[in-house]
Amino acid sequence: MKPATQIKRKRSVNTGILFLLPWLTGFVVFKLFPFLSSLFYSFTDFNLFQGITKYGLMNYHKIFTDSVTCRSLLTTIRFALTEVPLRLVAALLTACLLTKKLRCIKVFRVIYYIPSILGSSVAVSVLWKAFFRDDGAVNTLLSVFGIHNIAWLSNPAYTLYMICLMKVWQFGSSMVVFMAALKSVDTQLYDAARIDGASKIKCFSSITLPMISPAVFYNLVIQLCLAFQEFNSVYIITHGGPRQSTNLFSLLIYNNAFVSYDIGMASAMSWVIFIFTAFATLLTFKSQKYWVFYNDEENRR
User: Fold this and answer.
1) Crossing angle for the helix pair 105-118 and 172-183, nearest 10 degrees?
2) CB 228 within 8 A of CB 80
3) Are 108 and 98 in contact (CB under 8 A)?
């Protein structure tokens, strides 16, 4: 007969597995199975209505030789390299302001965080489109000052940057992380720097930025991953136009899967953007040893 402690331990393990079973079932059915299925379909010409007739690397060959997909990938990279730094700068500057001891500062924190709560919704994208269309509120306001007919959303030179501006406006989550990091900086460091005659700009560059660099690194990784997956705003506001200037890779995946029903190509494109995002994230992790400061040497390694 097994000792009572072993029986009790086995019961505890079985109880734990029982509680984990709903999550494990959901993970396998809704995460792992689609993940592996998309990898298989990426090597086929699977069409939703015609099935599979061919196997091979034709989808990947087309992705890197077709001008539309190559341009879409470059547009996605340009979007990420524009939107992510601007969002981080806006979040950091706002966090610096909101950590000051001012009257009604909690109210301002809530106000600045609200766009991030609403930002991913369809309603905000529709509102943004209404503001910046040719006869929208922004052009109506500018016409009062004699500025007429700025094609914010119909000129390829402006459209992608207007999408970036909307995403930058949603900096609330990054702002909260920066605020927490700023409050953790030891004030004695600033006191010592001021005694040595350091200016505010010098304190910010030599003390604040190095001390909050882990928060900068965290926000950079998260925002890069989100930028490469951006879909809602371009789908609602521009549908990839004008002249494919906002045709991000995620929108191209959607069109292949749910417009052309080319599941094989959509799966291959999903894996390309997944590998590209993973590579960009890996480079960011590799670069942290040159600019991210950790208090203990063990975390640095």
Assistant:
1) 140
2) yes
3) yes
Q: How far is CA 115 from each of CA 136, 168, 209, 222, 250, rounded to the nearest angstrom?
A: 20, 10, 25, 18, 23
Retrieve residue 168's tokens: 């930058």
Residue type, 186: D
Contact 281, 224 (CB under 8 A): yes
Query: Token pair of 139, please?
Result: 């052009």
- pLDDT over 70 percentage in the chain: 96
The rounded distance, in Å, linking the Cα atoms of 11 and 208 is: 51
49-58: pLDDT as tens digits: 888 999 999 9
Radius of gyration of the chain (CA): 25
Question: What phi and psi, each to the nearest 5 degrees, are found at residue 47?
Answer: -115, 140
Q: 204-231 pLDDT, tens per residue?
A: 989 999 999 999 999 999 999 999 999 9
- How far the first Cα of the chain sits from its last, in Å, is 49
